[in-house]
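Provenance

Sequences were taken from public entries as deposited. Structures were produced by running a predictor on each sequence independently, with no templates supplied. The record for CPBP family intramembrane metalloprotease from Flavobacterium restrictum is shown for reference.
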Amino acid sequence: MFLEQGIKEENTFWKYILGSVLIISASVVGQVPLLVAVFYETFVNKKPYPTSNDAIMHFFEPNSTLFLLLISFVFAMLAIYFVVRYLHQQSFLSVTTSRAQMDWNRVLFSFLVWSGFTIASTLFFYWSNPNDFVINFKPLPFLFLVVIGTVLIPIQTSTEEYVFRGYLMQGFANLSGNKWFPLLMTSLIFGLMHLSNPEVTKMGYWIMVYYIGTGLLLGVITLMDEGMELALGFHAANNLIGALLVTSDWSAFQTNSVLKDISEPTASLDVILPVVVIYPILLIIFGKKYNWTNWIEKLTGSIK
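Predicted structure for CPBP family intramembrane metalloprotease:
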C-alpha cells in the first residue's frame, strides 16, 4: 500500500523536517539564475531594481520570466530524489506509487480528462463574456511558451506532487499512524503555500477555498488509487494548459498565452464551483474507471 511504503522505524519525523529543509534550500539555490539576471539588467542595462514580486513578474519578457522561475523546481526535484534515496533509504518509486512500476496510462488519462475540462471551460467563459478577454496570441512567443511550458511546467507540478502527495504524506503517516491526518495536513499546507500568489492579493482569502480544496482532491485521488499517477496528470494539465490558454496581469504565471483576461477578478462562484461540483464529478469518473472501493477505510483508516 502507498502510505505503508514509507512506514519504517528509522523514518522518524525529524528526518522529514530535515528533508524538507534540504528541498527548500535547493529551491532557493535554484533562484540564483533569476537573481543574476535581475542584477545584470539592473547594473548593466540600468533598469530600476524591482522591489516587489509583481515588479519581478513584469521585469522580463514573459517567456524569460517563466523560464527563470521554473528553473528552481529542477533543483528542488533533484533534492527530493536525494532526500528520498539517501536520507530515507527508499526507492523513488516508493514515494510515487504502490504499483510495481509507474502507470503512465493513468497519468495520461488524468491529464487528458482535466485538459479537456480546462479547454471546454475556457471556451465557455470566452463565449459567455467576450469583453473580459483580448486575443493575446503571437505565433513565435507562443511557440517558445509551448517549448518552455512542456519541458518545465511538468517538472514544477511533479515537484509539488512529490513533496505533498508523496514525501510529506508518507511523513505525516509515520507521525500519526493513520490516513486522515496526512490527507488533511498536506491539503492545508498545499493551500497555504499559495498565500503569496498574486491571486490572493487580488481576490482575497476566499480563493484559499480553491487552493485547499484542490490539495484535498489530489490527496484523495492519491490515497484511493494507492499512487500519485492521477495527481501528477491532473496537476500538469491544470498548470500547463492553463498557462497556454489564458494569462492576466494578476495571475501567478505571466505568459504569452492565446487569451488575456482583462476582467476585474472576484472570488465568487467560480472559486467554489470546482470544489463542490466539478471535483466530486472527477472523483466519480476516476472511481468508476479504476473500481475504487472502501472509501472510508482508505481515507481515514489506521496504518497497518
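The mean pLDDT is 93.
The longest strand covers residues 133-135.
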